[in-house]
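Notes from hallway chat w/ T.B., transcribed later so I don't forget. T.B. wanted the structure written out for a chain they're using in a teaching module, and asked if we could keep both sequence and structure tokens in one place. Agreed to drop them here.
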Amino acid sequence: MLEGPRAARVDELEAAVSLANSVFYPDGSGDMGGWLPALFDRANASNLRVILDRQRLVSMAGVLIREASILGAALRIASIGSVCTLESYKGRGLATRLVEDASSLARRQGAQLILSEGVRFVRIHELAGSRLAALSCLPQLFRSYGVDRMCLETTAADAEMQRLCREYGLEAVRHGFQGTVKIIDREGFFRALEGVNRRAQDGPELRVEPGPVTVFRLAGEELRLSTDPELAVLAFGSVECRAPEPAPGALQKALARLFPLPLMHYGLDYI
């Protein structure tokens, strides 16, 4: 009989890492415990959501909650990762149950956003401090790792890095967030953005009424969004689809001044 979803115990952390390794590195080439040390930390054990069969871990989803800032608005971000299930237990909806459980846990801990990412890569170092120093290190990194190309991840708002890259003759390629984002607490999210909203407006203030249906109102015009994807696309933009828009007018202009918000790169600055 299956047990869970529930929090992992500290004495189950080693088994959780072994489960993740068996799914993500079946050839033994990597170690999820080393790749995600904060996730598999003893202090974070209660945020590892697991399902067991006769005391054997068969499926898990990890949650890591951190503080973040978007245009000065303080938010709590829940990153969900290491979602995995043993091959013989797939097809039973275990991962779906765990992600739903993780989302509920994140809401209880005050998170307004959930981020998840499907792309894994070797992170040499978080980009911080002098951008010039980071670029100056590239030749040594090429020699040390024996590669002929590198991808230097930064954000669209990093104007200094963009200028330096142009001076170095480096090509910048814009791309969207390589994962998913979901607003799990609409009221908390827009409450945190009140100051950003006021600074973005030029004239009457845009009114936001969050709830199961979030309503934006200005000068007798309104836009109603009921689904999570619609709201996330409006708030953060998307390269794949467009959010519903009001007819041309004051509300459309006000929304264009506020959105899209910059979305921090997964793992950058807050993990």
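Follow-up for T.B.: Strands lie at 2-7, 48-53, 56-70, 73-85, 113-117, 179-183, 207-209, 214-218, 221-225. Might be a good example for the class.
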